[in-house]
Amino acid sequence: MMFDYQTSTYTYRFTSPIQTSSEPPVSEVTELFLPSLHYKEGQFQATLSTGGRIRYDYPAQRAYISFVDAEDGSRRQTKVRRIDIYVPGKSRGTGKVSSWQVVLFIIFALVWGMVAWRTQMNEIWWDKKLGYTHSKWGTW
């Protein structure tokens, strides 16, 4: 189970018995909580493994998922399932710094440097005015 907060992508993998009946028993229905904070009605999509069915209960913020498998003659008793629920268009940042971020950083650094320099000069000026001959910067 994994949830990516930035993209509102929820991925759930699990193993369940192979179901060949058209209506799986209630014990084989997976119930997922879909908080409306991330998943508003009509604004998200889901991708299920083959044979997956999903039913939404928006007021209860729930999704009910079941799987019906085609008979393939294999002796497997279980199958790995995957459910992806995501919000289209809500993508993760690239991690690269844009040019406007560089410009803002330079402006911030310059302003901070000027304020620090002005504060130091103001302290030296007051030391001289008050007649201090020794300060943390040395002798005048």
Mean model confidence by pLDDT: 85
* Order of strands, widest sheet: 1-2-7-4
Count of DSSP strands: 9
- Number of DSSP helices? 1
What count of domains describes the coordinates?
Answer: 2
Rg measurement, Å: 31 Å
The end-to-end distance, rounded to whole angstroms, is: 68 Å
Tertiary shape: rod-shaped
Question: Low-confidence runs (pLDDT<50, min 5 residues)?
Answer: none
Structural class: alpha+beta
H and E order: EEEEEEEHEE
Percentage of residues assigned to helices: 10-25%
Strand content: 25-35%
- Please give the largest β-sheet: 4 strands, antiparallel
Short overview:
With 140 residues, the protein is of the alpha+beta class.
Task: Provide the descriptors you would attach to this structure in a database record.
single chain, 140 residues, alpha+beta, 4-stranded antiparallel sheet, 3-stranded antiparallel sheet, 1 helix, rod-shaped
